[in-house]
Automatic annotation (TrEMBL):
Upper lineage: Bacteria, Bacillati, Bacillota, Bacilli, Bacillales
PROSITE patterns: AA_TRANSFER_CLASS_4
Gene label: dat
Protein name per UniProt: D-alanine aminotransferase
SUPFAM superfamilies per the UniProt record, alphabetical: D-aminoacid aminotransferase-like PLP-dependent enzymes (SSF56752)
Organism: Sporolactobacillus putidus
Cofactor: pyridoxal 5'-phosphate
Keyword Zinc: no
Length: 276
């Protein structure tokens, strides 16, 4: 595979990271994962807006303009001959002798890759099992940083319980998934956590909120409890890779008898129409 390193296209084994890169030592960096459908970057502008916001919040300098970065991502897709796939890239604060304070002068370091991912492999229309896991992350989950240890530990715990995803809760409140956003349906109404510091404002989340409006499905962005989650008419998760994925079991509890719901189905159909 061809990877992106700064402004260069290299073969995967030519990519080198400095051992004192702050991304490596501190998780001091940001990333995006963008879906590719038919060779084209999906919802690109929203991802780039979020990237710029993440950079601002961490006072991290983007090494290239968004236009230039976009050109490079398109070249990366072409060089790897990606039709349906996923582009991942990250930007760290660069390399400097290890100390916590921002170094006075470093050059941000960008690395990126592109992989094929068929929708058939990524989607799970019959639904998945999830586990409820304590959300132990920091209080700025709205920033898409490389610090994902809380997410990693949660997903691993869920996996060891035979689940595909961890649904996180702070006290009684459901926040999001370890790598996705969470929606429930109650009496025909979509409910999802508001976009504040406790969740990442997913691009797929935003897209699904937009689809819901177009389909006249009422939406409430509000806190909801673990109790509401477990007694919901439907539960589904959203993310760049998974699109809309029904959750039909949480721990031992079946959701709606273990079958994907009607509203999730309508959203999956609408999503499908937008991307094929
Ligand atoms: N994860 N919440 C968290 C904590 C996430 O890591 C993600 C995405 C989302 C959904 O965001 P989006 O719809 O923009 O993909 C929500 C990515 C895909 C990842 O880390 O691989």
């Amino acid at each position: 595979p061809t990877i992106l390193y700064q402004d260069q296209f290299l073969s995967r084994d030519q990519g080198k990271v400095d051992m004192e890169d702050r991304g490596y030592q501190f998780g001091d960096g940001i990333y995006e994962a963008i879906r590719v459908y038919g060779g084209r970057l999906f919802l690109l502008d929203l991802h780039m807006k979020r990237l710029e916001r993440s950079a601002r919040e961490l006072r991290l300098q983007l090494p290239y303009s968004i236009d230039h970065l976009t050109d490079n991502l398109r070249t990366l897709i072409a060089k790897n001959q990606i039709d349906d796939g996923l582009v991942y890239f990250q930007i760290t604060r660069g390399a400097a002798p290890r100390q916590h304070l921002f170094p006075e002068e470093t050059e941000s370091v960008l690395t990126g890759s592109a992989i094929s991912l068929s929708r058939e492999d990524a989607l799970r229309p019959d639904g998945i099992k999830a586990s409820l896991i304590d959300d132990i992350r920091w209080l700025r989950c709205d920033i898409k940083t490389l610090n994902l240890l809380g997410n990693v530990l949660a997903k691993q715990k869920a996996h060891e319980q035979g689940s595909e995803e961890a649904i996180l809760h702070r006290g009684d409140t459901v926040t999001e998934g370890s790598s996705c956003n969470v929606f429930i349906v109650k009496e025909g109404r979509l409910i999802t956590h508001p976009a504040d510091h406790f969740i990442l404002n997913g691009i797929t989340r935003l897209f699904v909120l937009d689809l819901a409006e177009r389909l006249d499905i009422p939406v409430q962005e509000r806190l909801f409890s673990t109790e509401e989650l477990l007694s919901a008419d439907e539960v589904f998760i959203t993310s760049t890779g998974a699109e809309v994925k029904p959750v039909v079991q949480i721990g031992d509890q079946l959701i709606a008898g273990g079958r994907p719901g009607v509203i999730a189905g309508r959203l999956m159909d609408a999503f499908d129409k937008e991307v094929t």
